[in-house]
Design brief:
- Pfam families: Lectin_C, Surfac_D-trimer.
- One of its GO terms (biological process) is respiratory gaseous exchange by respiratory system.
- Keywords: Calcium, Collagen, Disulfide bond, Gaseous exchange, Hydroxylation, Lectin, Repeat, Secreted, Signal, Surface film.
- This protein has about 220 residues and is an alpha+beta fold.
- The chain is built from five helices and seven strands.
- The chain has a domain of about 100 residues: Mannose-Binding Protein A, Chain A (Roll), CATH 3.10.100.10.
- Helices cover about 40% and strands about 15% of the residues.
- The strands form two sheets. The protein has a four-stranded antiparallel sheet with strand order 1-2-7-3, sandwiched between helices. Strands 4-5-6 form a three-stranded antiparallel sheet.
- A hairpin with a 2-residue loop joins strand 1 and strand 2.
- The structure holds calcium ion (2 copies).
- The site of one calcium ion has 8 residues, from strand 6.
Length: about 220
């Protein structure tokens, strides 16, 4: 008790000391805060007005559907739009692929109708954003064959065995997952057949890359 009294006494006898400074700082802070709230703004800017009264209550809105009903309606609307787009897309795809393209699954084969060496043919397709035809199934091979028949020309495929003789791979280096070699092929005839052509009968033959063959790209 005596110690407490002494402490209070000590504080009261130091008005210019630490406590005094704190009290002063607190007062200033309070005044500053008060100014930002009400009307102590600098005189040259004028005094801010008081807050206005609350406005009238607005008219009542219509009773809303539960969220789930609204979402269902939106989904149904989107389904309708998607169906419409699918129909339009299908129509455009047919028109676009006539007469020099074929669609199979999500893959599209298209021929430029001209013949090039393998290297130039490959360049044509990659510059167009695709690659040379790489049929990976009987169905895809049949689609490429139809284009060869339509042009009455044999066409280059993308695969080569330039890296390892006798081992044909796709441009990615992946080994073949499908092939349709003609009887006796690939025979690396003359020791220099590293590219693949597809005949109008759908069969494959390894062929010299410098030969000119129909360009068929896939996208
Ligand atoms: Ca070869
Ligand atoms: Ca051959």
């Amino acid at each position: 008790m005596v110690r407490l009294l002494l402490s209070v006494l000590a504080l009261l006898t130091q008005p210019q000391g630490h406590l005094g400074a704190e009290v002063k700082a607190y007062s200033q802070k309070t005044v500053t805060n008060a100014c930002t709230l009400v009307m102590c703004s600098p005189v040259e800017n004028g005094l801010p007005g008081r807050d206005g009264r609350d406005g009238r209550e607005g008219p009542r809105g219509e009773k809303g559907d539960p969220d789930i009903t609204s979402l269902k309606q939106q989904v149904e609307a989107l389904q309708g739009q998607v169906q419409h787009l699918q129909a339009v897309f299908s129509q455009y795809k047919k028109a676009e692929l006539f007469p020099d393209g074929r669609g199979i699954g999500e893959k599209i084969f298209k021929t430029g109708g001209f013949e090039k060496s393998f290297q130039d043919a490959q360049k044509e397709c990659t510059q167009a954003g695709g690659q040379l035809a790489s049929p990976r199934s009987a169905a895809e091979n049949a689609a490429v064959q139809q284009l060869a028949i339509a042009q009455n020309k044999a066409a280059f495929l993308s695969m080569t065995d330039a890296h390892t003789e006798g081992k044909f791979v796709y441009p990615t280096g992946e080994p073949l997952v499908y092939s349709n070699w003609a009887p006796g092929e690939p025979n690396n005839n003359g020791g220099a057949e590293n590219c693949v052509e597809i005949f109008t009968n759908g069969k494959w033959n390894d062929k010299a890359c410098r030969e000119q063959r129909l360009v068929i790209c896939e996208f």
